[in-house]
Every structure is written in C-alpha cells, then in structure tokens.
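Complex record, two chains
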Amino acid sequence: MSLSAPTIARAAAPAPPARAYIRIDGVAKTYRSARGSVEALGAVSLDVGEREFVSIVGPSGCGKSTLLMLVAGLYLASSGRITVGGKAVAGPVTDLGIVFQKDVLLDWRSVLDNVMLQPEIRRLPAAPYRERALALLDQAGLAGFVDKYPSELSGGMRQRVSICRALVHDSPLLLMDEPFGALDAMTRDQMNLDLLKIWEAGRKTALFITHSISEAVFLSDRVVVMSPRPGRIQDILTIDLPRPRTLALRETAEFARYNRELRQHFQAMGVLRENA
Amino acid sequence: MSTAVGAAPGAADADRAGSRTALLQHVVPWLAFVLALAAWEGGVRAFSIPQWLLPAPSAIASELLAQPRVFAMHALVTSGEIVLGFLLSVAVGIPLAFGIAYSKVFERTLYPLLVASQAVPKVAIAPLLIVWFGFGTLPKVIVAFLIAFFPIVIDTVVGLRSVQPEMLHLARSMGATGWQTFRKIRLPKALPSIFAGFKVAITLSVVGAIVGEFVAADRGLGYLLMVASGEMNSRLLFAAIIVLTLIGVAFFLLIEALERWCIPWHAADAHEGLHGGA
C-alpha cells in the first residue's frame, strides 16, 4: 500500500492472528427482491483471531452490518463459508453476545432484569449469573441503577445495559453493530473507554462495526477498511498501540497517523472529499 | 402552566405552579361540569322550555330517583349484554390476531375478508340476527361482538408486530424458542396495544348492545329508550341516556384499571408523557 506511513510498523499482509476464532472465506451476500437483486457484499475473506478486537469501518451501505449479521448466522451468505469457533455457520450462532445500535431494552424489565434476560432464555442458573450481572453493571458504572427501568435512563446508560446483557453469559464472542452511533460525541468517548475497560478485563473475540475512524483506531487491534457497495475489503490496518489505551493516547502522533491513513482510504474511494 | 414557565425559578414559584397544576387537573373540570348543569337548569327555567323538549337536570334526577329499581333492572340486562359481547370479542379477536401475526397464509386469506366484513353495516344485520337467534340475549351479544371485535384484532396485530427486528435477532442469537420469544418479548410488548383495542371495544360493545335492543327487545336500556321515545317522555329518555353513559364510563375505567394492573410500566410512561407535554 503506497498510502502507509513508513514509520508505522505493520506487516504488508497483516499477520494472521495466532488462532482464528472467526473465519470468513469468500463470503458474498446478494439481496433478492421483486425489483431485482442488490449485491451488498462482494467476496470477503477475513480471519479474526481469538481474543482479538477487530473493527470494520466503511461508508454507509458498504455491507459492514451485513457482514456482522452473516457472522452471527442471522442472515445466510449467498456464497462462501463462515466458521465461528471451528463450527460452520448455518443458522443463528448462539455462543455469542450482540449489541446493536438500538439498545432494544425491554421497557417492562428493570436494568438488572434486562441483563438477566440472557441467562433466562438460555436457561442458565439464576443465582451465579445474577452475581455476574451485578458485577458487570457495577463495572459499567450502573451500580446505583440496577432497579431502575429503561425509561429512566439516558441513551448512554441504556447502551451500557445492553453491553452488559451481551457479556453476562460469558460467551467467547462479542459482536457490536455501531453500538455508539446514536450517542453524542462526549458520551461516545466515555463509552469507548468503558467498553475497553470491560473488554480488557475479560478479553473476548470482538467484531466491532463503526463508521468512526478514530473510534476504530482507539479500540482495535486491527481495523478493516471496506469499500462502498458491493462491499469488499480495501485494506487491513494493524493498530500497534499499547494497551490499556488511555485518552492521552488520542493526542499522540501515532494515533493521528493511523487516523490519517484510514482517512486517506476514504478520500481515495471518493467517500470523503475536500472542497479545494 | 405557560405563565409559570416564564416566571423566575424559585421554590415558591415551583410550589405555586404545582398547586396550580393540581387545581387545573382536579378542580376545574368539576367546576365546569357544575357550571354547565347550572346553566342548563337556569336556562330551562328562565325560558320556560317545555319538558318534552328539554327537561331540566333536576327533573331528570327526580325521574331517576323515583324508580331506581326499574333502571337498575334494565341496566343490569344491558350490562350483561355488553360484557358478554366484549368477552366474545376478546375470545375471538385475540386468537384471530395471533393467527394473522404469526401465519402468512392466515393473513393472506383471512385479513382481506375481515376488512371487507367491516364495510357491512352491523346495524343493518341486526334484524337478520333476530330472525336467526330470536328475541333473547344472544342477538344483542352478537351485534355487540360484531361491532367490537375488529379493533381488538387490528390493535393486537399491530402490537405483536411492534417488536423491533433487532430484538428478534437478539432473541434468536440467545437461542430463544418461539414460545420464549412470545412469552418474554412479543406478548408484553403487545400488551399496551391490546389494551388500546380493549378500550375501543368496550365502548363499541355498549353501542352494539343498544343497537341490538333497538331492533327487538322487551328489556334493557335500549328498550327503555324506545319506549320513552314512543311516549315522547324526554325525562325518561334523558334518564336512560345518563344511566347508559355511566355504564359506559364505568366499563372504560374498569379496563383502564386492569391495564394499569397488567402493564404498570406503560401507565408510568403515559403519566410521564402527560407531564412532559404540559
């Protein structure tokens, strides 16, 4: 890639992670309807390593959310093959937690009971998971809100609850589809910090969809850049920044360089233009 | 309210605004009601309006108090028809709605038929129902049911479909069974809509029962109205209408109480919304 800054240490072809947890192999998705078919996703191949945090950035409609749904087995691929945890995906993958942009909390359940929906539906024993739910909520700064109802919470707090719900059953995979897309900038920064704190405390394989470049750099081990529809992988950038990541990191030259490099991709695609 | 918003913030102002809200909410409606009654009474007396045209509130009250047992008997008959008609609407409407919400085949075949059936004026069917089912309670219950069940079907379908697709995705990723999704997500989510349907249905049941009684009956408030109308007895007409109104309001409040009991989270939201809008 001619765009890469020479000072940044990164492999020409990103080294495949030690052990892949998600394998996406030549996966394409075409939506068919009465009015014709739309190719949402071109042939995409990507491995996500065990306990790795990978973000996918791309312009709106590039199929990045579709890719996440395919990994979750909630949509089925038109061609290609996906394996999660060594098992081929042929239907909903249940050994995972998902966070969507909408928090989709249940209005009639308290914060704690919303988190407990997960173990309840999975028929897991209530007592130990209740302990875990309370611990997670405490970590998410919601200790004083466990008995509140979603209508009493702010957007950021609601999304924290839905993250706790995705983590409570302690599955090895966390999928997030623009979880902070609906939040204001300040809340978003805080959510990034909190998410990292929770994630670093018990690392899971994480696939994170966003259209914020800086968010992707801040959170991830690797950032995947996707092209406009039909989405294809344009580049994969290894983010070689130390963890735990701090706010101060965002002021560093390296951080800026990663951002610039990703931004240049979008400029090259014509998604981002400057009026000269 | 709007004047209080403009006032300088302070505990005293907030207090005054609070008591003013209470005043507006509780006292003013009753005051308006009493004033309207007084104006009615005064108007009838001042212009010496004949009783067959417009009886005074006092005359209507004395009519009601003169023979409370008679009114109670007729009210009981009509109430029974209303309740049975409503219950039948629920018993038929809810399963129909579930069928429509869950089965494409059911929806494609039944839904257009249901909508078309609503174009048939139920009042026009009432005489036919008398031919089929005689003069008893049954035809009235059926008219009430025919008028009332449709909103229950529509609102229940809307409620069952109001679940966000993301929520259903989430349920699938948890490995939820169809029953779990229904019990823990779809049904509670649909309850506010279902109760909205109930509220419309109970008021329509009142209409249905009366229409049924209009066509052929020997008791009930609808029958009483027909008798009073034949005799040009406006006092009796008004008295019957008032009893009927009270019955309608009572049933509506009963459904509302049931709603608050079944879905407290929704009632709390509605309450907040009211304050937020004020």
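Note: Chain B has two domains: 2-46, 57-277.
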